[in-house]
Amino acid sequence: MLLFFSLGFLIACQGDQVFDQTSKMGEQGWSQKNQVSYPFEIKDLDKSYSLYVALRQSNDYPFNNFYFIPKVLGSDGKLIKQALAEAVLYDPKSGKAKGEGLGDIYSHKFLIFKQLKFPKKGKYTLLLSHDMRTDTLAGIISVGASLVPNP
């Protein structure tokens, strides 16, 4: 537990990020109907940005991998960038959980877009949804994202 607080504190102390937010999924897990939305604002067009998605899961998660869709929308609702991302949460051969963990809870952080550029200053929204065949995913504790300017 201390590891998660320490990791969260270190991430929160990175003051140059545009946003860093996390949403808890509740006891049932992540429902496909529950699309996560993070609004943010871009003020500097000269920079490129890296988008990270963070995931916390328990051993109750029933699959080796996890598919999710990050979408970046402009203030007009138009799609700026989209991906279908796969997260491998367990080693397929050994069954050992990947990521940082303590007990039966593991944290993962995935780089989704490395050189993301925005067409104009203003407000944007990141939408996250899962793309698994099961409607509600047990064992997904939280999902989050951060957008950081590249050096």
Could you provide a short overview of the structure?
The protein has 151 residues and is mainly beta. 7% of the residues lie in helices and 52% in strands. The protein has one helix at residues 2-12; strands at 19-24, 30-31, 36-42, 49-58, 65-74, 79-82, 85-88, 100-102, 105-116, 122-130, 136-137, 140-149.
What does this structure look like?
Keywords: Lipoprotein. It comes from Aquirufa salirivi. InterPro entries: Motility-assoc_lipoprot_GldH. The protein is mainly beta. It contains 1 helix and 12 strands, in the order H-E-E-E-E-E-E-E-E-E-E-E-E. It has one helix at residues 2-12, and strands spanning 19-24, 30-31, 36-42, 49-58, 65-74, 79-82, 85-88, 100-102, 105-116, 122-130, 136-137, 140-149. A 5-stranded antiparallel β-sheet has the order 1-12-4-9-8, with helices on one face. Strands 3, 5, 6, 7 and 10 form a 5-stranded antiparallel β-sheet that branches. Strands 2-11 form a two-stranded antiparallel sheet. Strand 8 (100-102) and strand 9 form a beta hairpin. It is globular.
Relevant terms:
151 residues; lipoprotein; 1 helix; single chain; disordered N terminus; five-stranded antiparallel sheet; Motility-assoc_lipoprot_GldH; mainly beta
End-to-end separation: 32 Å
Instruction: Supply the CATH architecture.
Output: Sandwich
Total E-strand runs? 12
Specify the number of helices.
Answer: 1
CATH class: Mainly Beta
Number of structurally distinct domains: 1
Compressed to H and E, one letter per element, the order equals HEEEEEEEEEEEE
CATH fold-type name: Jelly Rolls
